[in-house]
Amino acid sequence: MDLLTQGLLGASMAQSGSKQNETRIATGIGFFAGIIADADILIQSENDPLLNIEFHRHFTHSLFFVPFGALIAALLLWPFLRKRLPFARLYLFALLGYCLSGVLDAFTSYGTHLLWPLNDERVAFNMISVIDPVFTLILLTAVVIAFRKHARMAARAGLLLASIYMTFGWTQLQRAESIAETLAADRGHVIDELLVKPTLANLVLWRSIYESEGRLHVDAIRVGLFSESRVYEGDSVGKFVLERDMSELSERSILATDIKRFTKFSAGLVAIRPEQPDVLVDVRYANLPMNLSPLWGIEMDVTQPDQRAKYTLYRDASSETRQQFLKLLRGHDLE
After folding, report:
1. Which of 15, 185, 215, 317 is the most buried (most CB within 10 A)?
2. pTM higher than 0.90 for the full model?
3. Could you tell me if residue 223 is left (phi over 0), alpha (psi between -120 and 50 degrees) or otherwise beta?
């Protein structure tokens, strides 16, 4: 999730394991340890545009890296805190702050390499958006109360409420998946693969992508809290398969390697952008949940197979797109 939420989760975890007179210092240690896992975003290369998306939320978010990540955080803080806290307590708070960084990201739709190096697949439970103001507010309130009142029980209560909210996300996911399966059945489609994920900052509006007979079908599903659910039927596109769609491209070429890397990052849900035949997009994400307007993709020049693919963002922050998104979120008709 976003850095603030990661830090707040780390702070609340450290607070929950502190003594009353340690609550405030544990807050800072936990917050720092909670965000340090995202230092992997600094792994970049001008010569390899895909390196950053490959290694963001990678090994630093693995469960097996937790003791080492906590140690790094503790060592970085030790020069500043050695006169205030024994190293063992410092490490404990850093460990508590760091331990759920990868787990929290695994609950999002973006996912993380939670089980690296045993498994290099990106784990994504799709129970919450990468930014969720309600989840963040729960943690923020608990951390502030615990900090001001020296009350670790407030931090524990916040963690409990955050867990309940996450459970609610799981419930909404199950409802959205059931609607998507019914929609596909009504169309006479047999689902080969189904992915349902929350849209930005809410647990009401979901994006459904399912594969059937080589095509990816995209729809928006509004799972009502106090009203009936609603489906906004969207577009479909042929799924891209490198060996079939670019059989002339040597598998050993740099471009083919980059296409495979991007396909793996996108969980195999990739397609050629209809209006740009040289652009391969990640169908999981779009500017609106029922269309194919992508958030990112790679530009491919098959005439230069030994050149790197260019990673490009296509985010649309126009007022028209925002207004349409709000209409979907509220369950209104689209014009």
Report:
1. 15
2. yes
3. beta
